[in-house]
Records
---
Amino acid sequence: MLKNKREIGKEGEEVAADYLRKKGYTIITTNYQKQCGEIDIIAEINKTIVFIEVKYRKQNALVSAEESITHIKKQRLIKTARHYIREEGNKLGNKGFRFDVIALSGLGENQTLQHYENAFIVT
């Protein structure tokens, strides 16, 4: 049975969350949505809040998963992250923040995962 984009995306986010847990991250929330955008995974490690975009591409796609994150997508992620920071306020304390990308390609046993820490800088 063929999966639709939403099912593949959800499956990819679950793979990414499992990977992060194994690496010692604590998953705070998934699919954080506001009018300005969505963040796939918000996690914490070593007193750093990590906003994670999960991108999936078919094997041999013309544009890689990491290359598919446009300037506009980055701006939406930043805006949504700022909203999260304002919303959580004092609960966050003196934690740092960063943006990561998890790029998945292929499905099943042939799936590859690349984790890009500090994938882009907020200015």
---
Amino acid sequence: MRDKNLPLTETVYYILLALIEPAHGYLIMQKVEELSGGQVRMAAGTLYGAVENLMKLRFIQPVRSEDSRRKVYAITETGMEMLRLDFERMNHMMQVTKEILR
């Protein structure tokens, strides 16, 4: 049975992917835009709402930072597992679609 948090939204998927290396808010926004090829642009409010939610789900966590003014986040084991499961789900969709559209 599939986890109730799947499928991930495109935004959440890119945030988790961006946080494989710890990052602060502004860097997360930049990485998401870059990883998505400019398809996903986030306002600060959207990002912080998503960050709060992802921390509640324990997909990400705050980590120590040299810069006390910035909160830095990193993906957790749970977050990595969700990313992997959603990647596998999408990969399966791609494979069956390729076969059918051939």
---
Amino acid sequence: MWPILTRDIILLALLGWCNFLPILGRLALKDRFAAPIDLGFIWPDRKPVFGPHKTWRGLVFAVAGTSAAASLTYAGPILGAKLACWSMAGDLISSFIKRRLGKRSGQKAIGLDQGLESSLPLYLLREELYISMEEVLGIVIVFTLLELILSPILYRIRIRRNPH
């Protein structure tokens, strides 16, 4: 069994990688394969379902890349793919909520932006990942803090589109 701290760092790294891969996909492929997941549909409130930044390309990059990275860890590729799917589901739920709150795609919503994409996969997969609720909370807090610190840096070096 992997030591607890090592296991938590691996999960934190996999979540970070999963959420960076859609950005990497955009940088590598530019506008190719950038169809929005919501296909441009508008919800009855006349706002996009998710918005233009949630793409099929990003989803494929996140799931395939996280699965590949997880194959190098105790999690393995299948659990890595599950982690990525649930993380992207959390990200889509956050995006849906942000649109309903009137926030534009890419607009900041601290906690909502980081919370579901990290907590949903960890909570749902905690038994398969061999982590406790305390570890889930700790990883989510560290993930959120790291994203708040790293996002403005990635924006300044022109990797992210927004500083948050």
---
Amino acid sequence: MGVRPPQQDDDEPDAIEFGIAALDARLSEVAVEYPTDGETIRRTLGDTEIPYNAAGNTVSIGEAIDQSGKTHFESEQELLNALHPVFEEMRESASSSILMQLRALVPF
């Protein structure tokens, strides 16, 4: 007797993107010319919400840029480097909250 292998559902991603990976994916969908400033990025991405943790909590691109303290970016890598600490801080603060700790215990 054999067991059928699980069916592959190609509609769902293999991994959840959040933080810099999610931002990088959004940036690859639009044309941003560097050097640029925060306002141009806001206009280009619109009201895009970027997830900053696997639970799906999000932050607007404008708020993330404001929290970075930078207004000018010479390259996409400089933008990603500036926003990385912002996403990490948000992720860590969300995961340390009592509610997030309780959600981590529940499998749904």
